Amino acid sequence: MSRPAYPSKGITFVRNDARVFRFCRSKCHKNFKMKRNPRKLKWTKAFRKAAGKEMTVDSTLQFAARRNVPVRYNRDLMAKTIKAMERVSEIRQRRERVFYKKRMAGKRERELATARKLVAENEHLLPRMRGSEKKRLRELGLTDEDIQEMEDKEERVQSKAFGGEKKRVAIALENDDDEDDDEEDESAMFDDEDDEDDDDEDGEDDDVDMDAD
User: Which regions are flagged for Basic and acidic residues bias (predicted)?
Assistant: First the structure.
């Protein structure tokens, strides 16, 4: 069941072994006929109580317990019982609200901590300069090229990394340094080759001049 069912309401099913099942609505009855486990369906009372989402120990819950004790009909007793049911329902609802507030206390802080961790782990995907900062610089008269140069010259802000993120960042920085060193070595090699070619050409020119003399 997923909600309370008052007497004479809902659906009653009696099995061959005389076991009685009461359902609050057709949705619960249909899932029972499909032989689904109520502890695995998140909208049932059984799941919510097992997961600690609802009260399981409370004095108001004892009034709803079924008692197979015959009672002679008395009009005054029935009137008092109905009033007591309403009063117990109000008390239970108030306690459920308090229970919910205690259970959800600190949820906002946990969500903020999770969001901050996600941003810290994926900071390399974020733009280096905020849009509001770019807008302010444009209002001061700077062009997009100047803003781009400022972004390139900005130092990287070291942020707290979690888990293997530090290793990945360190490896990426090492690879960048290695690529820069390789480019410098290649440029130096090309410069040396150009100097040698210039020297060879100068020597050939000198030989030609001597032959002409």
Answer: 153-168
Interval 54-108: pLDDT, tens: 888 888 877 777 778 888 999 999 999 889 889 988 998 999 999 999 999 999 9
Two structure tokens written together for 72: 């002679």
| Encoded tokens for 197 | 């070619």
Distance CA 97, CA 102 (A): 9
DSSP state of 13: E
Q: How far from the centroid of its chain's Cα atoms is residue 157's Cα?
A: 25
Q: Does residue 55 contact residue 95 with C-beta atoms inside 8 Å? A: yes
Smallest Cα–Cα separation from 157: which of 132, 133, 123?
123
CATH of span 1-54: 2.30.170.20
Contacts of 84 (CB under 8 A, 6+ apart): 63
Token output for 117 = 């961790």
Q: Which two tokens stand for residue 61?
A: 């819950």
By the 8 A CB rule, do 60 and 84 touch?
no
What are φ and ψ of residue 12, in 5° steps? -115, 130
Domain map (residue ranges) of the chain: 1-54, 166-213
- Cα gap 8→73, rounded to integer Å: 17
| CA 26 to each of CA 2, 9, 13, 20, 32: distance values in angstroms, whole numbers, following the listed order | 11, 12, 12, 16, 10
